[in-house]
């Protein structure tokens, strides 16, 4: 009885969530459409320019071909109609389905951002815990200075400096690319090879987030250390390590997870710059090129995919919250 | 194995000898406590009594070697079962904490890890001191402990998180945790201060029962002589870090030698019932009719929401110059009532009339103008003042919002600050420069500067020391006479209600179960719920019956 009711409850909640997701995606698609159209120029102008001469007839033909001669409202409705059918159109420049282009590039971007994010979160939290426990010491001061430097460093500059040190001077890592071309390697060798190419882009992308998470974690640990339940744990006779691992860590994670979840979107945005510096064949490069060429379908497609990724990240944050904090599972708390 | 810890010698369970605790340099005094000595025998409850700042909590923390960093023992010794605590370190110290001595704190919610099931938190204590047990054995131990502290359905409770429990249940969990390894000494630091009166009585009885059952020594820290009268065998009275008086509870309560002890005992609100003032004629200032409110609490993603009835047809009326006390346990809807009258919480139905005007039909500017006549003082004087706003501004902003020029508003503010017992110079200072009692005076000035017709005091003195409480209550009584104020006094402390109110309403689960003149309700309660509330007043038997001798065992309250 309660089992059935419970299952029905889950079904309803899931259905409501999917409806909300679709609505959010449509609103975002509308915004993206308006934004892209607000910039001066259109794909027809770029294409006409590339073909050498831009007479009015050619422009009009091109616009008719891509439906750009229609009123904005009609274009928007068509665009949303395609979004619902998961049809992202054809690139005006590359003459290939946008979905294919994205499908080719997405894995590289996901690999880069997920690696950077994971590293930043794990290393940052660990450093933050250590600094927080040693608050006020010389090591803590050194940590604060270091995190400030990382935080203040522009991503592209850090990337270039890494290349200078590890590729040019030390010759340890390849300066750019996504795997050695034509190398005959086994699966493990391939993975290691990819890892070499991944190291610097991931490090430059993750550095700033590492600094942010580390500082957050440090502050959270200092705050949690003053809570009554830590005193209770001491009064129970637990060791320092037991108190940190068993009681403080999870409590301190709550603010870090909040910020990490919010910044996931910014991380994907930051990937554009890093991918450009390291010639990483991800969505970033695709977006950059599409922007210059006013490749509307590609731009809209990429923006849409990015927004879906951000929404999924938010969902993941929500679930992580519930995992960490039982009060969140209870709803309004 | 655990029983081996029971003392065999005749040494006291706890001996504090000449204890001096030094504060970090630059504080307002050099020592938190100086030259404090007392002892606790097996099967004995010693109450350490004092007001905030007396150093009583520091002593408790020193016993378990839990002093905050920067604070250290500068002289004297603490010995538990004959062993000097200061000489313990590393694993010996950890074995002592939670093994030989257990401790419970004032705020049971913040003292439990919010992210861990309570059963796991208790199991951790057992595992730390007795090593790992098989899963089932551990579960049985934990559930046994929960049952011993009087928690129903221990199996279900062990799997709960602290936020799912009530205040009393949480404190029982804390006690179960402290008792897990059969300590010889239990240190309880204001264990019932955050609880309402009936829960307080239950927790005190539980501690007393466990003490007798196990022959523990108990150090109970409190600021309330009512609590002392109920449970203490002996009393140590602290003032400013020094012991001013010590002796058997009976002797100290009946024949206090030190004037400070006498003042503290006198400050205990004692339900001196005044003859009720004749109810004023004419129309009431405030009338509330059939107020209803149900809160819907969202639960898990996939669970139906829970509905909590906070007001179920509440009606009351209040005349000029009259004080109405609203009493009940936590969760009875007292605070919601106050907030609904202020329209800080929107009622689901009913009417609120202030001076004939229907508040619920007002909105925007009309509501803002009407609100002037209704002001509120909250419980926590620390949270209810903006820490970055000067006190003078905090008070003057009210009249300024209603068009009084700044200069004039500041003059009024200064005059009112003097009236509530501060100096005019206080206007230029920030809230953190004042004590709790002073801050509550500021909050009163802030509420009264608008010359309201009705003042709502929501647990306005509950966070204050007993002696400060008495002063603030006296101030409120004076102001009420002077300004012909009508007052709604929301409190869980029936002693205070009796002290200040002409009439009282008793709330339970959003319903009025009893109402009438304070004297009638308190001297001849008609409802069992009211009787239970009155019976739970700490020290009631002692303070109301001068010839009363404390029974060795607190009788069970129905």
UniProtKB/TrEMBL annotation, chain A:
It is found in: Cell membrane. Keywords: Cell membrane, Membrane, Transmembrane, Transmembrane helix, Transport. The chain crosses the membrane at residues 12-35, 110-136, 148-170, 194-212, 252-278, 298-321. The keyword Transmembrane applies. One of its GO terms (cellular component) is plasma membrane. Residues 106-317 form the ABC transmembrane type-1 domain. It is a multi-pass membrane protein. InterPro entries: BPD_transp_1_N (IPR045621), MetI-like (IPR000515), MetI-like_sf (IPR035906). GO terms for biological process: transmembrane transport. Belongs to the binding-protein-dependent transport system permease family. This is Dipeptide transport system permease protein DppB. It comes from Methylobacterium frigidaeris. The lineage of its organism: Bacteria, Pseudomonadati, Pseudomonadota, Alphaproteobacteria, Hyphomicrobiales.
Automatic annotation (TrEMBL), chain B:
Keywords: ATP-binding, Nucleotide-binding, Transport. SMART domains: AAA. It is found in: Cell inner membrane. One of its GO terms (molecular function) is ATP hydrolysis activity. Its main location: membrane. Residues 14-265, 286-534 form the ABC transporter domain. One of its GO terms (biological process) is peptide transport. It comes from the Bacteria. GO terms for cellular component: plasma membrane. It is a peripheral membrane protein. Pfam families: ABC_tran (PF00005), oligo_HPY (PF08352). Belongs to the ABC transporter superfamily. This is Glutathione import ATP-binding protein GsiA.
